[in-house]
Amino acid sequence: MRYSSAVESFTSYLEQVRRLSPATVRAYRGDLTDLGALVGDALLRDVDLEDLRSWLWQATQRGDARSTMARRAAAARSFFRWAHESELIPLDPSLRLVTPKLPRTLPAVASADGMRELLEACGREAADGDPIALRDHAVLELLYATGARVSEICGVDLDDVDLHRRTVRVMGKGAKERVIPFGAPAARAVGAYLTRARPALLARAARATPALLLGPRGGRIGPRAVYALVDRVLGPLVGAEHIGPHALRHSAATHLLDGGADLRAVQELLGHASLGTTQIYTHVSSERLAAAYRLAHPRA
Predict the structure, then answer these.
(1) What values do phi and psi take at 178, rounded to 5?
(2) Under a CB-based contact definition with an 8 Å cutoff, are residues 277 and 150 in contact?
(3) For this structure, is 101 an active site residue?
(4) 198, 249, 250, 255: which one is catalytic?
(5) DSSP symbol at 90
(6) Where in the chain is the domain with CATH 1.10.150?
(7) Burial of 62 (0-12, 13-18, 19+ CB in 10 A)
(8) Using CA atoms, how far apart are residues 108 and 113, in angstroms rounded to an integer?
């Protein structure tokens, strides 16, 4: 099989079998297309380890970040492992492919007091009944209360929310569904939005939609709008020039662990496939504890 045909088959596998998100599939395809610029449309079995090393070396010459190189190497390993398991190639050339080890960076996290003040301020802004302000308050409360990904919150429909039980059903990575609880403040914000804002926004739409959260024209809100919202209101709080909704997810997870939540419960809440992914928040909590110790203890 030719390289280009194998890439098409692989992306179909990612979409239909692994059911990865469109954004993830596009990332895989982009990285493999970049490799294709080096190897051409060769027979897949003729692509070897030296080709892969040359590809990554070119990335270093362009000045690509180590995180970009690591992502591309991971895409290549996934692709060739699939090709080998599918018996398209006799050997997997990516088994010995090595990439620079990435430094472990801790996520930006807002303080619990800072988050409370921010959400209370958003609530005051929404008190005058402006539909967008009410919606923004509901978005921020839901993101922080649930720790959900922005794509998950944007994909929520009306039927997914149970205000009586205070739960929301989201569709996570790999089309895995989970039900997440949320607290009374988020329930109040969502309830106010549903009563006072959503009907006004829906009236602007060309057709009805089941989406919970709507944009100014009445359609489903998109991730880009949520990114802009979070960057505007949360960036100054954490001291970051550009920040996205994941900061609310990081903050929610860290505050849960600070409050004594079990690590596996937080893993389930966040929808992490691996406990190791969740464990980074224990490092955040430890650093916060160490900082508090250094500031408060007379013998620190």
Answers:
(1) -145, 155
(2) no
(3) no
(4) 249
(5) S
(6) 3-85
(7) exposed
(8) 15
Is 84 one of the annotated active-site residues of the chain? no
Asked if 173 is an active-site residue, the reply is: yes
CB neighbour list of residue 262: distance below 8 Å, 6 or more residues apart: none
Spatial strand order of the sheet with 177-181 comes to 161-162, 167-171, 177-181
Query: What's the rounded Cα separation, in Å, for the pair 97 and 151?
Result: 32
Which architecture, in CATH terms, is 3-85? Orthogonal Bundle (1.10)
Query: Which class is 112-294 in CATH?
Result: mainly alpha
Domain with CATH 1.10.443.10 in the chain: 112-294
Compute φ and ψ for 161, nearest 5 degrees: -105, 130
16-68 tens-digit pLDDT: 998 888 888 999 999 999 999 999 888 999 999 999 999 988 888 888 887 78
User: Residues 149, 198, 250, 255: which is the catalytic one?
Assistant: 149
Q: Which of 278, 29, 148 is nearest to 140 (CA)?
A: 148
* 3-state secondary structure at position 180: strand
Instruction: Pick the catalytic residue from 166, 173, 188, 196.
Output: 173
Q: How far apart are CA 177 and CA 170, in angstroms?
A: 6
Query: Is residue 250 annotated as a catalytic residue, yes or no?
Result: no
Identify whether 176 is a catalytic site residue.
no
As a whole number of angstroms, the distance between CA 170 and CA 153 comes to 7
Its pTM stands at 0.66
Instruction: Please give the Cα distance from 14 to 150 (Å, whole number).
Output: 21
